[in-house]
């Protein structure tokens, strides 16, 4: 009998590899941001009081007067960016290496420091994020009950407050109502806003404010381990 001709078997088309999800669940109202391995906390939409009308017993410059602000919901890192995370951005030829710092300030889990505002912007873009606005930073730190510090209204004593740099998120007492750490101490943080000593509060500053539209300086928030006063 005649040998039948073989029939061609169609090779199946390869299925597209599913893209990695940018987030994974974490503890509580938080997510793990997979791009840089950070944990981010949810800050719900609400009004809060931004700024201060009365400062401490010494002069504090650059403080906005107390005023009500409404913010949409947003996510924010629960800890400062570590030197290890920043090094990954450098290894990808995206971020610029930082200038040398003291040996006792070097460590993979210590917060990145000695970075310019543009360095912070580049890192955020690499990680698929952005710098928070000043209003977002302040709400994440103070909540919606007008507290002076992330933990409440009572100042910590010199003995309670670390006067040296420590691992990101390692100060259990420096904790905001939304689970964000080290907003009062460790190292200070850049925010997206331009800084102006003559800034006025107007109607555009009351809902999702973004600060002055131009300037020569940017705003820094929070204390650092190098600050001479606990407040």
What structural class do helix, strand and pairing data support?
alpha+beta
Number of H/I helices: 3
Strand elements, count:
8
Sheet with the most strands, sense and barrel status: 4 strands, antiparallel
Overall average pLDDT:
86
Oligomer: single chain
Low-confidence stretches: none
Helix content: 10-25%
Trace the largest sheet across and list its strands. 1-2-3-6
Helix-strand pattern: EEEEEEHHHEE
Strand content: 15-25%
Radius of gyration: 23 Å
Distance between the termini: 98 Å
Shape: globular
Q: What would you say about this model in short?
A:
This protein is of the alpha+beta class. The chain contains three helices and eight strands, in the order ββββββαααββ.
How would you characterize this protein structure?
- The chain is an alpha+beta fold and 231 residues long.
- It contains 3 helices and 8 strands.
- The chain has helices at residues 83-91, 117-126, 134-142, and strands at 23-25, 30-33, 38-43, 46-50, 67-71, 74-77, 189-194, 218-221.
- The strands form 3 sheets. It has a 4-stranded antiparallel β-sheet. A two-stranded antiparallel ribbon has the order 4-5.
- Strand 1 (23-25) and strand 2 form a beta hairpin.
- The N and C termini lie far apart (98 Å).
């Amino acid at each position: 009998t005649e040998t039948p001709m073989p029939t061609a078997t169609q090779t199946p088309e390869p299925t597209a590899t599913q893209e990695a999800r940018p987030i994974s669940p974490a503890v509580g109202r938080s997510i793990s941001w997979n791009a840089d391995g950070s944990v981010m906390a949810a800050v719900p939409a609400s009004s809060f009081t931004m700024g201060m009308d009365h400062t401490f017993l010494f002069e504090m410059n650059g403080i906005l007067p107390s005023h009500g602000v409404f913010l949409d919901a947003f996510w924010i890192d629960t800890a400062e960016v570590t030197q290890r995370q920043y090094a990954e951005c450098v290894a990808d030829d995206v971020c610029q290496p930082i200038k040398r710092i003291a040996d006792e300030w070097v460590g993979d889990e210590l917060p990145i420091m000695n970075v310019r505002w543009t360095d912070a912007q580049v890192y955020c873009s690499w990680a698929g994020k952005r710098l928070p606005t000043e209003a977002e930073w302040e709400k994440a730190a103070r909540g919606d009950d007008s507290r002076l510090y992330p933990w409440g209204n009572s100042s910590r004593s010199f003995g309670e407050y670390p006067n040296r740099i420590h691992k990101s998120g390692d100060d259990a007492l420096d904790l905001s109502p939304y689970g964000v750490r080290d907003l009062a101490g460790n190292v200070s943080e850049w925010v997206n806003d331009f800084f102006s000593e003559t800034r006025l509060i107007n109607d555009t500053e009351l809902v999702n404010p973004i600060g002055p539209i131009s300037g020569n300086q940017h705003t820094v928030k929070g204390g650092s381990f190098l600050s001479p006063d606990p407040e």
